[in-house]
Amino acid sequence: MATLSFVPEYESDTVFSIANKALKLTTKEDIQPQLDDLLKLTKINKIDLSGNTLGIEASREIATTITSNPSIFENLQEVNFADLYTSRLVDEVVESLQHLLPALLKCPKLYIVNLSDNAFGLRTIDSLESYIANATSLEHLILSNNGMGPFAGERIGKALFHLASNKLKLTPQAPLLKTFICGRNRLENGSSLYLALGLKAHADGLKVVKLYQNGIRPRGIMNLIHYGFKFNTQLQVLDLQDNTLTKTASIMLAENLPIWKDVLIELNLNDCLLKRDGADAIFEVFTKIEFPKLTALKVEYNEIIQSTIEEKLITALNNKNLPKLSILQINGNILDEDSEALDTLQGMFDELEIDDLEEEDSDADADDESDDDDTNEDETFQQVETDLLEKDLLELEIDTITEGLAKTKI
Q1: How far is CA 150 from the centre of its chain?
Q2: First-to-last CA distance in the chain?
Q3: pLDDT tens per residue, range 160-213
Q4: Which stretches within 297-399 are classed as H helix?
Q5: Domains (ranges, CATH) in the chain?
Q6: 11: number of CA atoms within 13 Å, CB side?
Q7: H-helix or E-strand containing 16?
Q8: 266, containing H or E segment
Q9: Which of 28, 136, 380, 383 has its CA 20 to 30 A from that of 84?
Q10: R_g of the chain computed on alpha carbons
Q11: What pTM did the predictor assign?
């Protein structure tokens, strides 16, 4: 994973890391040498166990060590528990999390948690949902490539909603979630409504949302935008790469883009099937409104045609509406490699790649490709009474495990 801008620099003697050592830590005896090294530090800001494999007994020992040592639980700000369960059985993963996650709840300063690249799936959702809902110090959650699926994704959305509610109940109120990264999780449309409500609950606290490679189709994207993103008015990074927008969701995104005109830094729509009319709608916004902070615009492999680049993108650049744009990705679209427009763009962007362009269709084919025939039910927006859903969520105790986990003594 690329370096994340929100990750702070710690003093070297406050970081414990065994990252990427491929250690198989199953028993107490296996983990004891690492715990001995951990306890040599007088103040621990970060624990990085990523790239090893944990068993149940080792997980229990780590949890006990965290919760019984003030040098850890009073100071811990970041944990990286990515890629922890290679070769482990599902039952082992479930029980491991039942030890580790309650221990993290005992750390009042812990605000960065990375649980990516673990095969959690649906079996672990009780523990994850309960942890997220109660982790009131949490500001940056990285939860990618976990095999969630739409039902687990829906419950993650509900947990985010409860997290915001629990943060706001504190005196003083805890900062809302700033970063939510949940890519490669097969979230699909089924998770989109409650996920949207969960993100909405964090309002202008959210700065970064990455939902790449989730198989979300137009109606799901529209749910996310209409019931979620548009309330996150301070979004700096929006990454929807490798989901499906087509014309309908693209138009809704275009209608809401001005919300972020003063804050947006990166917009990633690579592989989103914007198609001709969808791309036109999005680029039209840039011709009319200045986005002074937009640094990266990624729209590769979207069936964008030459006229959109010539009439929309070049116009926006000439109008100085994208003054900070330094990263432009337009490869894989239906463009003329020898055109003056692409020559112009290559002169403006040193790292512009245009080595995999599609051939432009004939006029007849282009007419056939028109987005005017979007009749697929999945590409129409469906109004939902979300006020009732939010009311129900506020009245609902997330589950009996939640309170138990929050009070667990290890």
Answers
A1: 15
A2: 32
A3: 999 999 999 999 999 999 999 999 999 999 999 999 999 999 999 999 999 999
A4: 306-308, 314-318, 340-348, 363-368, 386-395
A5: 12-406 (3.80.10.10)
A6: 9
A7: strand 15-17
A8: strand 266-268
A9: 136
A10: 23
A11: 0.93
